[in-house]
Design a protein that fits this description.
Helix content: 25-40%
Structural class: mainly alpha
Largest sheet: 2 strands, antiparallel
Order of helices and strands: HHHEHHHHHHHHEEHHEEEEEHHHHHEEH
Radius of gyration: 23 Å
Distance between the termini: 20 Å
Number of strands: 10
Strand order of the largest sheet: 1-3
Strand content: 5-15%
Length: 527
């Protein structure tokens, strides 16, 4: 927190934001001071753009599943291994990177100064509401990861930043939900043209519903979900296309980080980490066998049901279509060839080069590499909140409130049938306990690899069950290069061993470098 943000802000406010692709003409940044910055509407827009800059990133979303049982981060320099296997310390780089107050301070600065601008009050209030959302979102992330964190709603001097203490998590969460309720009354339902990607009423209400669900305030979550449902969002018909750049800004997207290819500081340069070396990528994130096993059979039965038709020797046949939409598995036709990480000597063999150590690749976000000429320079937006999550939040909040009416089943049916799965079998899922199991599985497979799984593990307190022991990948064998036929003859490959301390690992440590500066911060238990 040792930052004098004015200089950062004046350098950054004119940087094009990831949430707006076209801007009004603006003067050179060296022509601005804190006094002259607010003289025109264009300058105020540019200042707000600085608040949007890096409020969330594609890399943060992608890598968050690596600290869950969904994915494994193989490269030590990405700094997520320790967070995933239970050996994190207060000096780990990602622990320090996520303790980030830059967006919060930018928003504080904007909110304190924008009233100086000679622009219409309704526009000024909307601008402030957008900044208040971005600030609330960052506090949501901070409280999820670290628990108690300093809460500041004004610009801090260096001396203040170096002595501020941590605010109880419950108090910060109340601030978040109060802010989101207030700004939802101000923000518009939708935008058009160059304003696409700005914060909407739906984003405020959907984030508020997420926070309420995570905090077990089920009545509030249900209320906010109903408000979002009334705004006209819906499920996009094609699950795979939902995440492709040609279909961005569709009716399911409530909040996303927007990118544009070939635009300096605004292209998505992270997707190349997903394919393996045979496709020109790095295979930095590898789905686990645990995630693959979570997908049901196409008939709606789980793979451990002896009547499901599942075969350990033919495990990828007749599965939930979302498996192939999320994961590249052995024998799947991907980018012009049958993917083969299991045949010794194959270019994508699991233990060689920039290949997946689990034998599985992330397909979501990059289902067709032909979508872009350069996968390191794309315009793929990364979704932060979408309508399917709202339906899942609604269903979970209802059953945790003891309600299992038709609206709960309908929310699940809508999600499942969109993906090509059968509706919920009411004779099997006919009580609260079984519905809870189903909803938790649906959240995992529907939202797989979108950065939310860790938060579910955290709030359900299931870390010792799902994040302890061996991380497995596919079984070895062969893939016929001409037909894609998979023959499995070996054991499952092993990616790593994990440990989980429930007295410690549900929260990250406060970064040591912050505690070296500010002795008032304290530390989370176990670190």
């Amino acid at each position: 927190m040792k930052r004098n943000l004015l200089y950062i802000l004046l350098a950054g406010v004119l940087t094009q934001t990831a949430c707006q692709k076209d801007f009004l003409d603006k003067s050179p940044s060296d022509g601005y001071s804190n006094e002259s910055l607010w003289t025109t509407e264009a300058a105020a827009v540019a200042a707000l753009s600085g608040c949007y800059k890096n409020w969330e990133t594609s890399s943060s979303i992608l890598y968050m599943d690596a600290i869950s049982d969904n994915s494994y981060s193989q490269w030590p320099w990405d700094n997520y291994q320790h967070l995933g296997n239970g050996t994190a310390t207060a000096t780990d780089p990602q622990v320090a990177n996520q303790w980030d107050y830059v967006t919060i301070q930018r928003c504080n600065w904007f909110i304190e100064n924008v009233d100086k601008a000679t622009i219409a009050d309704n526009l000024k209030n909307r601008f402030k509401a957008e900044a208040r959302f971005l600030r609330a979102y960052r506090y949501f992330i901070l409280t999820q990861l670290y628990g108690d964190v300093p809460l500041s709603v004004k610009n801090l001097s260096v001396q203040e930043a170096n002595t501020i203490s941590r605010t109880p998590r419950a108090e910060v969460r109340k601030f978040i939900t109060d802010e989101l309720a207030a700004i939802a009354l101000i923000l518009p339902d939708k935008y058009s043209g160059s304003d696409l990607g700005r914060i909407t009423k739906g984003a405020a209400l959907a984030l508020r519903a997420r926070v309420a669900l995570f905090d077990k305030n089920y009545a509030a979550a249900i209320e906010d979900c109903k408000k979002v449902m009334a705004l006209g969002y819906g499920l996009y018909p094609n699950y795979t296309d939902l995440f492709r750049q040609d279909f961005e800004n569709n009716k399911e997207v409530i909040l996303d980080v927007q990118y544009k290819a070939n635009e300096k500081d605004n292209s998505n340069g992270d997707l190349g980490i997903l394919p393996s070396s045979g496709y020109g990528g790095w295979a930095s994130l590898s789905p686990t066998q645990s995630l693959v096993d979570a997908f049901e059979m196409a008939n709606g039965k789980t793979i451990d049901d002896p009547t499901s038709g599942y075969s350990e020797d033919n495990p990828y046949v007749n599965r939930d279509p979302r498996l192939a939409a999320n994961v590249v598995y052995p024998g799947l036709q991907y980018s012009g060839k049958f993917y083969d990480p299991i045949t010794s000597g194959s270019g994508d063999y699991y233990s060689e080069g920039n290949n997946s150590p689990t034998g599985y690749l992330v397909r979501k976000f990059v289902p067709f590499l032909s979508d872009f000429p350069d996968m390191w320079n794309t315009g793929v937006n990364i979704i932060v909140i979408r309508y399917a999550e709202v339906l899942l939040t609604y269903a979970e909040a209802q059953i945790e409130s003891g309600v299992m009416d038709n609206s709960v089943y309908q929310a699940l049916d809508d999600i499942r049938t969109r993906a090509g799965m059968p509706a919920v079998d009411r004779t099997v899922y006919n009580n609260i306990a079984s519905l809870r199991t189903l909803i938790r599985r649906e959240r995992r497979v529907e939202l797989a690899l979108e950065g939310l799984r860790w938060y579910d593990i955290q709030r359900w307190q299931i870390g010792p069950t799902v994040r302890t022991g061996t991380v497995y990948g596919t079984r070895l064998g062969t893939v016929d290069a001409n037909t894609g036929k998979v023959t499995l003859t070996g054991n499952h490959v092993v990616a790593e061993q994990r440990n989980f301390n429930p007295q410690r690992d549900y929260l990250w440590p406060v970064p040591q470098k912050e505690r070296d500066i500010n002795k008032s911060l304290g530390q989370n238990p176990g670190y």
